[in-house]
Amino acid sequence: MLIIGLSGLALTAVEREQLAAPQVSGVILFARNFATRGQVTELIESVRALRGDAFLVCVDQEGGRVQRFRDGFTALPPLATLGARYASDPQQALAHAEEHAWLMATEMRAIGVDLSFAPVLDLGRGNRAIGTRAFAAQPEVVSALGLAYLRGMRLGGMAATIKHFPGHGSVLEDTHVDRASDERDFDTICAEDLLPFIDAIDAGAEAAMMAHVVYPRVDSNPAGYSHTWVTDILRNELGFRGVVFSDDISMAAGESAGGVAARIQAHITAGCDLILACQPDIVDAALSETQGMTGFDPQRLASLCGSVAQSWDQLLDNPQRTRFIANLMKLMA
Fold first, then answer.
1. How many CB atoms sit inside 10 A of residue 140's CB?
2. Residues 90, 118, 111, 22: what is their CA dihedral angle, to the nearest 10 degrees?
3. Does residue 111 sit within a domain?
4. Which is catalytic among the residues 60, 122, 193, 247?
5. Which of 136, 182, 293, 311 could lock onto 83 through a cystine, CB 3.0 to 4.6 A?
6. Which residue segment(s) compose the domain that 82 sits in?
7. 145: which residues sit within 8 A by CB, 6+ positions away?
8. Domains identified in the chain, total number
9. Which helix (H) or strand (E) holds 140?
10. Domain of 222: which CATH number?
């Protein structure tokens, strides 16, 4: 049930032991794990050699400032550029959203990444952590572009992870470094922030990632620790049947539950399926807390594993890729 972070450019002896633990279902890669395309491909292959294909390799390759792999990959524009284009030409913006998603997904699949945690469906309303990662401030615009992004990811052979449920964009604080509280009532959240998530769930989004934000007029716990948000609302009211990820338990806002053990137990009790332990210095504690627990259901895990992977040479030979890159570069001109 754990997705763990790695420390550097190649697996250490300790990390090989950690990856062998049955409760580890995948890894998440960051810029610290990337030097070149060849190097990160070798790193992914070394992980596969230990755990096989039924094991998730994940990344945040959103574009803009959150793009972990850069040199040798398409410099994807931030999602906010698509929202800006939507204001003047909605149909072109929707087409570009599909192109953006397809480029991201096919490049990641070509090197063996299963899942990029995308798209961001938070509203662009000034949050310090979200910023230009959001498509727009208007729920209906985020919903339309988000649905186009889901289509593009699927065409690229990748499942979608909608984040950060139920919406991280309407608070100021960055939950990586601070705690965040959204004081609005449920009806307001539902009419605004939840709208893109509801539409994406109806479109069959395969996974969702929870926010570390507290919504005190709904529940006193951060959403990822909240049975109300994960089970009662996301699962039961909205009918979501996909995989629920926690956000990183290393983040400052995640510390509200206590130590690593308490954070993991809080997520499990709320109903989360897979828990992100992104910082290497907490992995041992996470493994100790989950020792004896069974791994995540292989059939449900398989629903997130990538498909339709082309080689990098095949991608370079695809004229569609060249055209899509040219279209997206115009957004940043």
1. 11
2. -160
3. yes
4. 247
5. 136
6. 2-266+276-331
7. 79, 82, 83, 86, 93, 94, 97, 119, 135, 136
8. 1
9. helix 139-155
10. 3.20.20.300
**218 has pLDDT over 70:** yes
| Strand order across the beta sheet in which 207-210 lies | 161-165, 207-210, 243-245
Order of strands across the sheet that contains 2-5: 115-116, 56-59, 24-29, 2-5, 275-277
Q: How many other CB atoms sit within 10 Å of the CB of residue 86?
A: 23
Q: Give the pLDDT confidence score for residue 180 in this predicted structure.
A: 80
Q: Alpha-carbon torsion 120, 54, 57, 228, what sign?
A: positive
Tell me, yes or no, whether 98 lies in a domain. yes
In a domain, 226, yes or no: yes
Lowest mean pLDDT among 28-37, 47-56, 89-98: 47-56
Is this prediction's pTM over 0.85?
yes
What percentage of the chain reaches a pLDDT higher than 90? 85
User: Residue 271 falls within a domain, yes or no?
Assistant: no
pLDDT at 173: 78
Residue 114 a catalytic site member: no
DSSP secondary structure string for all residues of 101-126: HHHHHHHHHHTT--EE---B-S--S-
Q: Which helix (H) or strand (E) holds 57?
A: strand 56-59
Could you confirm whether 247 is annotated as catalytic? yes
Nearest to 19 by CA among 58, 59, 46: 46
Is residue 257 predicted with pLDDT exceeding 70?
no
Closest CA relative to residue 14, chosen from 280, 292, 278: 280
Say which of 174, 176, 227, 232 is annotated catalytic: 176
